[in-house]
Amino acid sequence: MHIEVRNISKTFHGHKAVDNVSFSIERGKLIGLLGPSGGGKSTLLRILAGLETPDSGDIFINGKRVNDVQPQLRGIGFVFQNYALFKHMNVFDNIAFGLTIRKASKAEIKTRVGELLDLTGLRGFEHRYPHQLSGGQRQRVAFARALAPKPDLLLLDEPFAAIDAKVRKELRTWLKQLIGTLGITSIFVTHDQDEAVEVADEMLIVQKGRLEQQGSPVHIYTDPQTAFVAGFIGHSTVVEQPESLRGFGGSSLTAGAKALIRPEFVEVGREREIPFPSAAEKGKVRHIFFRGAHLELDVEVGSNRLSAHRSLDQEPLQPGDEVSVLIHRLYVISDESATIVENPLKVDPLPVHI
């Protein structure tokens, strides 16, 4: 493994910011570090960079323990969310800063900065100063500066937080391509789930200083291992008494367990549209929200309110309409674990003979 973190813990003033975290990362992977505010993401990143010292545990890069290695000697590039560019330096000098500190030759600096200007699309901007650049351009300079010394590991602390939504989407696509071209192992912190899902090869989900789950975006979304991950990733509705739902009343649900139901688990329509009417609930449409590619329905089912998606190509529904609601599956939450349960009343329809 390229990066190994073993049983890292860090406490600040009695608060455990990182709690016995272990994970490993293969070379060249782009990892999204995701979790709520205060969950320990930035602290973990700073420990990797050597800007914080762990209370316990070990960090290995390329098989070498680096706990006692100074930050500038760890072979790590760091990109901050506020760019942290030197205002009195132009683009060329900002990118060259790390090389200059390492006393690289002028020829080496000129060659390397030229490569990065081309790689980041900044050729022609090398004599401009940060205040003469757009937010997206400033962030590209920050990336180039971090990459100039050819680090083994690139760390990015919410690199797109200060950029507007349209440019942020363009930059994260660019970042994915850049990391793929360079093959550099990278970890980026983000609050944006869409960003993590779109960019990351793998995700690390943390909360309260603990690592909840590691895996590909698809794996984490479709197979959450903990109650927190099931509720944190995607959009879910909490159902306090899942046994009250048709199809799940006869399931072996743990007494007192709650359920999480995602919109894609729910099918809403007129009775003739639902393929398994015996497994469906009766419901009423309360609100309809236009989401561009689809409609989001707020549906009342007994004492529960569920969200569901409906295609724009389907027959329109209106608030107040009585509908059939088929819940295909749900996540049962019990003892901090998440288990997916299928609606047992769903059966394959009888074959049609022509």
Q: Overview of this structure, please?
A:
By secondary structure, this protein is an alpha+beta fold. It folds into two domains: 3-225, 3-Layer(aba) Sandwich (Rossmann fold), CATH 3.40.50.300; 235-342, Beta Barrel (OB fold (Dihydrolipoamide Acetyltransferase, E2P)). The chain has helices spanning 41-49, 91-101, 106-119, 135-147, 165-182, 193-199, 217-222, 227-232, and strands at 3-12, 15-25, 30-34, 56-61, 64-65, 76-79, 153-157, 185-190, 202-207, 210-215, 237-239, 258-261, 266-269, 281-290, 294-301, 304-311, 322-327, 329-334, 337-342. Strands 6-7-8-3-9-10 form a six-stranded mixed β-sheet, sandwiched between helices. A five-stranded antiparallel β-sheet has the order 13-17-14-15-16, with no helix packed on it. α2 (91-101) crosses α3 and α2 runs parallel beside α4. Mean pLDDT is 89; it is low at 349-354. The complex is composed of two ATP-binding proteins (OpuCA), two transmembrane proteins (OpuCB and OpuCD) and a solute-binding protein (OpuCC).
